[in-house]
């Protein structure tokens, strides 16, 4: 207390010191004193109120404790009285045991009396109930069955209460009501039969289905009541719980499964389209049944059954089991496609589960997939393997069929523009198109995969196509009379390459989203170009085989005296190119250019072979004039074949050689040869030697001087012009030692 007083005094001193720090504050001492007095009075008042409140609470508590003490004493006195009375009545309670037994017996007798009518009429009620079941009066039959079961269960319960170990009396009651269990089983069979035919029943007589559901609901309530009583007493009647609700859902599930599995009406042996028919029947059954469930059956079941959701899942699970069974079979390629198309596309489309009448009731996106992704991948892989094997066989068969046409005695068909063609490209790409359309039904990714597979097989096929075209040419060369339409079918083979290119580009444009080239594009393009190039070469070989005799007459003594070799060559080439006009561009243009080059090359080869050596200036002039004339003939011919395009350069080589022969002054020979070399820089020394040898008047020294001078001043070959002399070889001849030394020097 003293510490508290000292602390209070110190605090007060500190407060006063704080208020009187300046001299002008002394004038307010009275004001400060009154303010502090008011605060003190206020604090004292609050303390008095608090103390008074505490005192009132203590007074009230003491009063209640006194009252509780009195109550405890009263209770103790009452308990003492009760204990005294209980001790006095023990003997009386023991004397009432007989009364208790009499009460239990009275209860059993009362139950027996209550069920007496049913007990005596059990056989009659059983018979009536059996008749009602047979007449499908299910509600009435169930009412009577419940009465019988109630009588039996009450009697057995009372017996259980009286003596639970008395099995003899329990069996006596059970045997007396033995027929009741049979009635229950018969009624259950009727219920399951109605549920198995629920789809038809709900259309024809929905009240029957409602009655079945009501009966099952009644049994469910009885089951719950019996189970509750078992928890309290330990007694449960025979055949309880029946669990008919669970059985009902099992029956409905079995009905749905049977409905789906029973949709297969044909087999593969009877109908190749069995899979399509099966899936279409399944689609129709599922859709029709679910619409019936939504519009009719839902009204026959209590709302808490979630009838539509339950049936939706049942049909989904049944369909899933069925398609998995189908997927496990040894399916053909078309069957795999039909199954996957149905599973991946049709199933969730508006034609089935996505139908407008169903989507409002169930979110199809919540459904599990019909087939696991692993199974889908396995089916796709199997389809690719089967398709690869099939398409290889189809392509081989198509090529064999086309080869049979090559030996026909009739010309191949022509398209609307008059170009020869065979049916091979149409057959191949119709086959590709059909398979791509089928693959597109599955999904876009698989469609592109099939297209790439087609292109890969196409490359292998074109390699075989080229080999067969080469074999076709070789067979023809063994007997040029056969086949009769060799030229026309070789033209068709060339044109087919153009058609193949167009068809491939069309397929890629139609079925590939990406414009990026595939890994097979370059190989296919190269192989098609090789086939077309080979075909053009084979046809030119055919032409030059016919020209071989006439070409051998060029630059000979016979030619100098006058022959019609070039006339015949031009007529033959023009005649062939009337057929070659049925070759599509750009192959016909390239072929015309190659024919032009080969004619000129063969002509120059005739010069280089030194079949003739001019004896004098007159012969040189006559030969040169003939060469210039024939060069003009070639120009005219190929201008005509190329529709006026520039063709002079190649033929001008003949005229340039003719000018070397025509020159009368040998001293100017070097200038003329230099002009020839400047125009055709691919000319070689052996060509010049051969020309000078044919001219016949060049001395050994002049030849050596011309060659050495040209070797020193020879222009470089840029390679940007078409070479003429590059592929022309000069036959080897015996040379003098000086000429050999000069040639060796030039070669070095």
Overview of this protein structure:
The chain is an all-alpha fold and 748 residues long. Helices cover 75% and strands 0% of the residues. The chain has 28 helices and no strands. It has helices at residues 2-19, 29-95, 97-114, 116-120, 122-134, 138-162, 167-176, 178-196, 198-204, 206-233, 244-261, 274-295, 307-327, 333-346, 373-406, 424-440, 444-478, 486-511, 521-551, 557-562, 565-580, 587-608, 617-641, 648-662, 669-679, 685-695, 700-713, 737-747. It is elongated, with a radius of gyration of 58 Å. Residues 734-748 have low confidence and may be disordered.
Largest sheet: none
| Portion of residues within helices | over 70%
Mean pLDDT, all residues: 85
Shape: elongated
What letter string, H or E per element, gives the SSE order?
HHHHHHHHHHHHHHHHHHHHHHHHHHHH
Supply database-style keywords.
transport, exocytosis, 748 residues, mainly alpha, elongated, 28 helices
Describe the structure concisely for a colleague.
This is Exocyst complex component 3. It contains 28 helices and no strands.
Would you spell out the secondary-structure blueprint of this structure?
Blueprint: H1 2-19, H2 29-95, H3 97-114, H4 116-120, H5 122-134, H6 138-162, H7 167-176, H8 178-196, H9 198-204, H10 206-233, H11 244-261, H12 274-295, H13 307-327, H14 333-346, H15 373-406, H16 424-440, H17 444-478, H18 486-511, H19 521-551, H20 557-562, H21 565-580, H22 587-608, H23 617-641, H24 648-662, H25 669-679, H26 685-695, H27 700-713, H28 737-747
Helix pairs in contact: 3-6, 5-6, 5-8, 6-7, 6-8, 8-11, 9-10, 11-13, 12-13, 14-15, 15-16, 15-17, 16-17, 16-18, 17-18, 17-19, 18-19, 19-21, 19-22, 21-23, 22-24, 23-24, 24-25
């Amino acid at each position: 207390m003293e510490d508290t007083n000292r602390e209070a005094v110190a605090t007060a001193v500190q407060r006063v010191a704080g208020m009187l720090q300046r001299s002008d504050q002394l004038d307010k001492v009275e004001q400060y004193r009154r303010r502090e007095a008011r605060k003190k009075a206020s604090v004292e008042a609050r303390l008095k109120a608090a103390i008074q409140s505490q005192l009132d609470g203590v007074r009230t508590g003491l009063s209640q404790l006194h009252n509780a003490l009195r109550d405890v004493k009263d209770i103790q006195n009452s308990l003492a009285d009760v204990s005294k009375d209980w001790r006095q009545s023990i003997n009386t309670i023991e004397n009432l045991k007989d009364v208790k037994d009499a009460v239990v017996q009275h209860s059993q007798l009362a139950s027996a009396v209550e069920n007496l009518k049913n007990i005596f009429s059990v056989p009659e009620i059983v018979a009536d109930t059996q008749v009602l079941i047979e007449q499908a009066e299910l509600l009435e039959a169930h009412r009577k069955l419940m009465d019988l079961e109630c009588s039996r269960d009450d009697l057995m319960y009372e017996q259980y209460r009286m003596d639970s170990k008395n099995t003899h009396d329990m069996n006596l009651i059970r045997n007396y009501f033995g027929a009741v269990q049979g009635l229950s089983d018969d009624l259950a069979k009727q219920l399951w039969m109605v549920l198995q035919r629920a789809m038809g029943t709900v259309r024809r007589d929905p009240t029957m289905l409602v009655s079945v559901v009501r009966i099952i609901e009644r049994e469910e309530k009885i089951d719950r009541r019996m189970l509750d009583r078992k928890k309290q007493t330990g007694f449960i009647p025979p055949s309880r719980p029946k669990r008919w609700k669970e059985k009902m859902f099992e029956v409905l599930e079995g009905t749905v499964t049977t409905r789906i599995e029973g949709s297969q009406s044909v087999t593969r042996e009877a109908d190749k389209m069995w899979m399509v028919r099966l899936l279409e029947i399944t689609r129709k059954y599922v859709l029709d049944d679910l619409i019936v469930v939504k519009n009719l059956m839902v009204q026959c079941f209590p709302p808490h059954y979630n009838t539509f959701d339950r049936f939706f899942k049942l049909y989904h699970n049944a369909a899933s089991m069925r398609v998995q069974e189908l997927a496990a079979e040894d399916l053909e390629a078309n069957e795999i496609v039909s199954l996957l198309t149905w599973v991946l596309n049709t199933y969730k489309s508006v034609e089935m589960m996505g139908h407008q009448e169903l989507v409002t009731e169930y979110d199809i996106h919540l459904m599990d997939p019909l087939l696991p992704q692993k199974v889908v991948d396995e089916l796709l892989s199997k389809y690719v393997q089967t398709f690869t094997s099939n398409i290889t066989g189809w392509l081989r068969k198509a090529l064999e069929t086309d080869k049979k046409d090559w030996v026909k005695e009739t010309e191949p068909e022509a398209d609307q523009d008059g170009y020869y063609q065979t049916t091979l490209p149409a057959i191949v790409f119709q086959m590709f198109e059909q398979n791509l359309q089928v693959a597109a039904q599955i999904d876009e990714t698989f469609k592109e995969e099939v297209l790439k597979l087609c292109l890969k097989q196409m490359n292998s096929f074109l390699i075989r196509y080229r080999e067969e075209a080469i074999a076709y040419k070789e067979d023809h060369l063994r007997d040029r009379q056969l086949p009769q339409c060799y030229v026309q079918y070789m033209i068709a083979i060339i044109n087919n390459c153009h058609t193949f290119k167009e068809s491939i580009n069309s397929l890629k444009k139609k079925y590939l989203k990406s414009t990026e080239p595939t890994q097979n594009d370059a190989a296919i393009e190269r192989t098609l170009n090789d086939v077309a190039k080979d075909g053009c070469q084979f046809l030119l070989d055919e032409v030059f085989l016919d020209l071989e005799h006439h070409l051998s007459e060029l630059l000979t003594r016979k030619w100098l005296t006058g022959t019609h070799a070039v006339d015949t060559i031009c007529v033959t080439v023009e005649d062939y190119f009337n057929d070659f006009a049925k070759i599509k561009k750009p192959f016909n243009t390239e072929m015309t250019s190659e024919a032009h080059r080969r004619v000129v090359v063969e002509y120059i080869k005739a010069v280089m072979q030194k079949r003739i050596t001019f004896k004098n200036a007159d012969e040189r002039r006559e030969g040169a004039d003939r060469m210039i004339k024939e060069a003009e003939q070639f120009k005219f011919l190929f201008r005509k074949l190329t529709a006026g395009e520039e063709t002079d350069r190649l033929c001008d080589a003949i005229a340039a050689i003719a000018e070397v022969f025509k020159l009368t002054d040998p001293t100017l020979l070097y200038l003329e040869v230099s002009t020839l070399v400047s125009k055709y820089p691919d000319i070689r020394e052996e060509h010049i030697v051969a020309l000078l040898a044919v001219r016949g008047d060049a001395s050994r020294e002049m030849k050596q001087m011309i060659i050495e001078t040209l070797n020193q001043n020879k222009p470089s070959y840029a390679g940007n012009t078409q070479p003429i002399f590059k592929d022309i070889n000069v036959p080897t001849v015996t040379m003098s030692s000086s000429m050999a030394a000069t040639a060796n020097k030039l070669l070095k």
